[in-house]
Each structure stands twice: as structure tokens, then as C-alpha cells.
Amino acid sequence: MLPHRSLMLAVSLVAAFGGQAAAGGHNLPLLNAPARPSPPGTLHRSFTAVVSAGGHLVRGNGAVAASQPEGQGTYEVDFETDVTACAYVATLGQTGSNGLSLPGDITVVGRSGTPSAIFVTTGDNKGRNRNRSFQVDVGC
């Protein structure tokens, strides 16, 4: 038997989503929820990029190019639109679905002078710039 609070939450979810919460996976209510206006500052669009250690765009959504403009461990990732008002998240990782990535550092900021790009630096775990593959998500 469900504790009282859990039962109330389950009843609320079923009522809010027309019974859809009881069926399927954990994402089902969110996928079928009606669209609601977002408060100011809420992210509306997401761009992604997977970049090789050599500075090549492997794949992505909304990303149009990648390069190594300033040498080892530095990257520019270009997107199809202005991303200056967006949030940037990057992580070291392989470009495929297999393999491990060694520990290291990664930073990401907007690209100065290029509103449709971000600047990424990658390095080893001692703070030295090193060419590393990575993934990035830009939420706008």
C-alpha cells in the first residue's frame, strides 16, 4: 500500500495528465502534457555538438562547424543562430557510443566577437591544454 503522500501525488498526476501517468515510462506525462507558456528566462531551444579531439564537428543539432582556432586544446563551435543569451554545458567524452575518456578539464564560454559561437578549452587533469573530444549542449 502506498503511503498517504505518495497516493495523493499519484492521484494528482493522474488527474493532471488525464490518466496518462499510470501507463508507460517515466517520461510519458511530460511528453503528453499540453504546452503551457514558459516564464521569462526559461530555455526554449537546445543545440548540441559532438567534437573530435582534432576539432571536427562529428554530429550535432544546430551546430554547423567546429575548429581549433588557437592551437592545442582550444575549440570554436559555431551554431546556426546567435547563442549569446544561452546557457552552455560541456563535458569531455568520446565521439562514439563506446570507450572511456581520461579525466581532465573542460571550460566553455561565449566566443568573443562571434555571437553564433562558443569557445571551449580542454586539458589534462594537471591543467595543461590537450586536444580532447567533447560534447556540448547549448540551451537558449
What level of helicity do the residues show?
10-25%
Number of strands: 8
* Mean pLDDT over the residues: 80
| Structural shape | globular
Q: Tell me the quaternary state.
A: single chain
The assigned structural class equals: mainly beta
Low-confidence stretches: 1-35
What is the alpha-carbon Rg in Å?
A: 20 Å
Number of structurally distinct domains: 2
From the N-terminal CA to the C-terminal CA, the straight-line distance is: 43 Å
Number of helices: 2
Largest sheet: 4 strands, antiparallel
Describe the overall structure.
The chain is mainly β and 140 residues long. The protein folds into two domains: 1-36, no CATH class; 46-139, no CATH class. The protein has two helices and eight strands. It has helices spanning 4-16, 28-32, and strands spanning 46-51, 57-61, 63-67, 74-79, 87-92, 104-110, 117-124, 134-139. The strands form two sheets. The protein has a four-stranded antiparallel sheet, with no helix packed on it. The radius of gyration is 20 Å and the shape is globular. The protein starts with a helix and ends with a strand. The model is unreliable at 1-35 (pLDDT under 50).
